[in-house]
Automatic annotation (TrEMBL):
Component of the small ribosomal subunit. Identified in a IGF2BP1-dependent mRNP granule complex containing untranslated mRNAs. Part of the small subunit (SSU) processome, composed of more than 70 proteins and the RNA chaperone small nucleolar RNA (snoRNA) U3. It comes from Bos mutus grunniens. InterPro entries: Ribosomal_eS8, Ribosomal_eS8_CS, Ribosomal_Se8/biogenesis_NSA2. The gene is RPS8. The chain crosses the membrane at residues 170-190. Keywords: Membrane, Ribonucleoprotein, Ribosomal protein, Transmembrane, Transmembrane helix. Residues 1-26, 127-153 are annotated as: Disordered. PANTHER family: 40S RIBOSOMAL PROTEIN S8. This is 40S ribosomal protein S8.
């Protein structure tokens, strides 16, 4: 039997029966949701119409996220699911679906920021750089020169911003471009899996109830 998404096996609106004039089709079945969890990468392939393949993500632990205001895209680790507007059960079970709010590791973005602007970011107050880091910073400053005024959208000198980056965690606005199949909540992984064209917000600046 199985779950089918066709309508020819149902009665007509007038109450009359329909004669089945063909057998069941593979494209009419109802596939179960993947319910993607946070864990080591596990992706299953699904054979679809035309011999093509879709890739169903059962577990994911990394994603490709964009820092929109800085045009910086990095592959980073997904730490946790902190909010879901549709269902709190998806937060408790840490299920990755479209529009869920996730917690990611900020280390790749901090490293890019320090290398691009030659300015320390996310350092504790009074913490001194190692000789290697200090030498690298001087080389970057000498090669790049002074940062133009207004070029850095995040001002590292502000104490509140330093505290936020010290947590090493960021909250993107939402997971927006996870692919789906069969009109069900089945996240897939393609060339743009988990891509985030939205602005990254530091972790403590968003309070999730």
């Amino acid at each position: 039997m199985g779950i089918s998404r066709d309508n020819w096996h149902k009665r007509r609106k007038t109450g009359g029966k329909r004669k089945p004039y063909h057998k069941k089709r593979k494209y009419e079945l109802g596939r179960p949701a993947a319910n993607t969890k946070i864990g080591p990468r596990r992706i299953h392939t699904v054979r679809v119409r035309g011999g093509n393949k879709k890739y169903r993500a059962l577990r994911l632990d990394v994603g490709n996220f964009s820092w929109g205001s800085e045009c910086c895209t990095r592959k980073t680790r997904i730490i946790d699911v902190v909010y879901n507007a549709s269902n709190n059960e998806l937060v408790r079970t840490k299920t990755l679906v479209k529009n869920c709010i996730v917690l990611i590791d900020s280390t790749p973005y901090r490293q890019w920021y320090e290398s691009h602007y030659a300015l320390p970011l996310g350092r504790k107050k009074g913490a001194k750089l190692t000789p290697e880091e200090e030498k690298e910073r001087e080389n970057q400053q000498s090669s790049r020169g002074a940062v133009p005024a207004g070029q850095a959208s995040c001002i590292p000198s502000q104490s509140w911003n330093q505290k936020l980056w010290n947590s090493m965690r960021l909250i993107p606005s939402m997971m927006t471009a996870i692919l789906y199949m069969c009109s069900l909540t089945i996240p897939l992984v393609g060339n743009t899996f988990c891509q985030m064209p939205t602005l990254l917000t530091p972790f403590r600046s968003l309070s999730v109830q």
